[in-house]
Design a protein that fits this description.
- By secondary structure, the protein is mostly helical.
- The protein has two domains: 6-281, Fic-like fold (Orthogonal Bundle), CATH 1.10.3290.10; 287-346, Orthogonal Bundle (Arc Repressor Mutant, subunit A).
- The chain has 14 helices and four strands.
- It has helices spanning 16-38, 40-61, 68-75, 84-102, 110-120, 160-176, 182-196, 203-217, 228-234, 236-247, 258-283, 288-298, 305-311, 317-329; strands at residues 139-142, 148-152, 333-336, 343-346.
- Strand 1 (139-142) and strand 2 (148-152) form a beta hairpin.
- Helix 4 runs parallel beside helix 8 and helix 10 runs antiparallel to helix 11.
Length: 348
Amino acid sequence: MRVFNYSVIKEEKWDSEILSLIAAIYKEAGKQEMYLKQRPEQLEKLVEIAKIQSTEASNAIEGIVTTNTRIKQLVTEKTTPKNRNEQEIAGYRDVLNIIHESFDAIPITKNYILQLHKILYSHMNNPIAGKTKTVQNYISATYPDGHVETLFTPLSPTDTPIALENICNEYNRVIGNMEVEPLIAIPTFIHDFLCIHPFNDGNGRMSRLLTTLLLYRCGFYVGKYISLEAKIAKNKDLYYASLNDSQHNWHNGNDNKVPFIKYILGTILSAYKDFEERFKLIETKKSALETVREATYIKIGKFKKQDIKELCPALSISSIEGSLRKLVELEEIARIGKGKNISYYRIK
């Protein structure tokens, strides 16, 4: 069975890219702390958007979807689930809310992870909820010609409970002793979690929820305001490629976690950069037109009304629509498409 010893992490020689990513994240985290003190009320509006995006994106990665309207209603608890997909979405919402509200009271232990998994399935009668896997699972790829290839075989069901307990113990030990940089320990833990693949179902969603939990517990709160799950969904191929590259030789302890660590750190830093952009748009009092104009400069290529809403949470949809119409009239942006497919792009 695979042996876990996180103390060896401190002996690794990390390349300049990883060291630069870590330094940049700490710098951005410091700036975020300052921003939160300056505009706490306005920034709280980002929280609701991030919750909706996180719940939608993390489930969509696994093919669990519903309409945009239903997602918003489910996340804000203004409706009840109508089908299996919506039951799973509601469960993700519940776990995310618990992490947001009580992260400092959730220790990283096998039993608490099992409890969060049980809550993930709390809206449906699922016998696997809160239990480690009972059958061997595989990470596979289906190719265009229809053939399926096994990319990685996780731990057996019999080895899973102790392995899950061991990675929790190792993580807590090196973090508690300040032996290992948290921004290295977190993706290492998540990578091992995904290689163990402890559940019959819900492993991907649980890994993303645990990433947010671990970051919060170490003082990195960017996921509260910018959805990490949405960023992963937009770069899903890179996510799976980095995970696959890091899984080789995992069973004998000779795996190279660097690709996955770089991917996770890059995603965290990108989220902090997005947060800073949003803060700058609400930092000073501007007219709706000027705020939307500045938001369009941030977007590269085509963008939709909802993209501007995410950047300008303090503005109503009607104010954004009016500002976009005015910018079209001023020939600063162009509009293409009709109805729900309307997009814009800057022309000067």
